[in-house]
Design brief:
Strand content: 25-35%
Helix content: 25-40%
CATH class of the largest domain: Alpha Beta
CATH architecture of the largest domain: 3-Layer(aba) Sandwich
Number of helices: 12
Order of helices and strands: HHHHEHEHEEHHEHEHEHEEEEHEEE
Distance between the termini: 31 Å
Radius of gyration: 21 Å
CATH topology of the largest domain: Rossmann fold
CATH superfamily of the largest domain: Vaccinia Virus protein VP39
């Protein structure tokens, strides 16, 4: 993030919001995201609530886009950059500004939100902190938007799948990026989206190596397991933000998310495995659940990643890895069809 938390606070709709009111409003927002989701839209109902939401969630959500884009090929990144990007459900501009940071200001973004307060908040932050003339905020998708890039950041879970598919049918985006909360409910919707995108002729740039193959985790759910495929971003924040998170009692060091990137512009041929779950660490290895393509079908398996040959520094780095990364490996021994001992390369 290009600025300190105190600078962001000055750009809020209510820059003098008290610490007490920040805590109170974030408590209400948090309930809307979890136990009381029928009230999820209430966080846009007042200037104080929008300010509290922005102060906490904007800086902590921006790194999610960096993480996802770092998993994409150079060709797909270049294509995304070459298009106009509509950030649908932009809120206070979180992912519009994440795009600005990732592309160092050289990207055209239209942030769209039905909330007048969110548009006002996003515009103020851009005016005072980012000052990017290529970013604009408005209440509807531009009439001439066609065949470009559509991004939804924490919007699919609010708008639902049917409205999104209608938008895709109307505007034919060549790239679709979704970054959503890492919950089982969202995963069920994303599995349906995945099927629809395959039928529409899209490739998956992340995370699925082959969307014409059934998702192995979705198959497990049908068999009665509680697992779902999601990523987990492990973060460190500066001292200002850490103090705020301690006050509001919301931990943002470990952030589950579900991110998918679909494209018609660049065929993505991913032959790597992808870590989809950290299972355990033993004295001799890290055990991960991974997803990869075998004989044209996606499968999941337990990778036993050996510690032998790793330095203490490398082991510590492995302990901090985020779930959802690509894995290049050599097979040491196939213990069974679903249990493989490997060495990373």
């Amino acid at each position: 993030m290009r600025f300190h938390l105190n600078e962001l606070k000055k750009a809020l709709l209510e820059p003098t919001i008290s610490e007490h009111n920040i805590v109170k409003n974030l408590s209400l927002v948090s309930k809307g995201f979890t136990s009381d989701r029928n009230k999820i839209t209430e966080y846009v109902m007042s200037r104080e609530m929008v300010s509290a939401y922005t102060l906490f969630y904007l800086p902590s959500n921006i790194p999610k886009l960096n993480f996802v884009f770092d998993m994409l090929s150079e060709e797909i990144i270049a294509d995304i950059k070459s298009t106009r990007i509509v950030d649908l459900g932009t809120g206070p501009g979180t992912f519009a500004f994440a795009l600005d940071e990732y592309f160092d200001g050289d990207v055209e973004v239209v942030g769209v939100d039905t909330s007048k307060l969110m548009i006002e908040q996003a515009t103020k932050i851009n005016s005072e902190l980012y000052k990017n003339k290529k970013i604009n905020f408005q209440k509807s998708i531009p009439a001439d938007f066609d065949g470009e890039t559509l991004l939804l950041g924490h919007s699919l879970n609010e708008m639902g799948l049917k409205p999104l598919l209608k938008i895709i049918g109307e505007y034919s985006p060549r790239n679709l990026i979704i970054i959503e909360p890492g919950t089982s409910d969202v995963f069920k919707e994303v599995v349906k989206l995945r099927t629809a995108m395959a039928e529409l002729g899209y490739f998956c740039a992340y995370p699925c190596a082959n969307i014409n193959s059934k998702c192995p985790v979705a198959t497990k759910i049908e068999e009665g397991t509680d697992d779902w495929c999601h990523q987990v971003l492990r973060m460190t924040h500066d001292s200002e933000f850490e103090r705020l998170s301690q006050i509001v009692k919301l931990d943002r060091k470990v952030m589950p998310l579900i991110a998918h990137v679909y494209t018609k512009s660049v065929k993505h041929d991913n032959k790597k495995a992808r870590m989809i779950r950290f299972l355990r660490e033993s004295k001799f290895s890290f055990d991960w659940e991974v997803c990869f393509e075998r004989d044209g079908e996606l499968v999941s398996a337990n990778f036993e990643v050996m510690k032998r040959g790793l330095s203490k520094k490398e082991v510590k780095e492995m302990q901090k890895l985020s779930v959802g990364i690509d894995v290049e490996y050599e097979v040491v021994k196939e213990l069974s069809k679903d249990h493989i001992r490997v060495k990373l390369i």
